[in-house]
Amino acid sequence: MPENAEKSLNRFRDYLLVLARLQIGLRLQRQMDPSDLVQQTLLEAQAQWPAVRAQSHDQIAAWLRRILANNLADAVRTAQRAKRDVRREVSIHQGIEQSSVQLCNILPCKEPSPETRAQQTERAIALTAALAQLPEAQFDAVSLKYLRGLSLVQCAQTMGKSPAAVTGLLQRALKQLKTAMDSLSISHF
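Below the sequence we write its predicted structure tokens.
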């Protein structure tokens, strides 16, 4: 892959990894590796890079989300060995887009101008990079609580932990995220 393409596409690696982890969920993580899905997505993107490299950052992110959603649908089909269910595939595509929107909503934006929207996308990518660095239990707690909107009790039940343990995970995760975002001068926590 030309250096330009590799550098440009690798900027999205953590973003795609977080989206994949959010969509796979705890149940399927034992059957498929989110990193493998992201790697496959970036390999497929490499082949098409010359046709899209001139597009905006937002358009490239949307294009990569579509490729990831397709790869995730294929992996889910393989993992579940089920007949093709178009409704499930549509759900996966919508889930990837919804997760991306939720990530952007964590970082409030007052003006919908193109420049502001581009900055918001940059912040979302920086946030996903920070999320990707969290230990697995902290990532799961943050994604269940803040991205899926579960209550603390529901998070604890899903994770098989006590509410106090999940609270501790959330506190440590938010502290680590704030530190990471502060170091980039992009704090909105």
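The domain at 135-189 is CATH 1.10.10.10 (Arc Repressor Mutant, subunit A).
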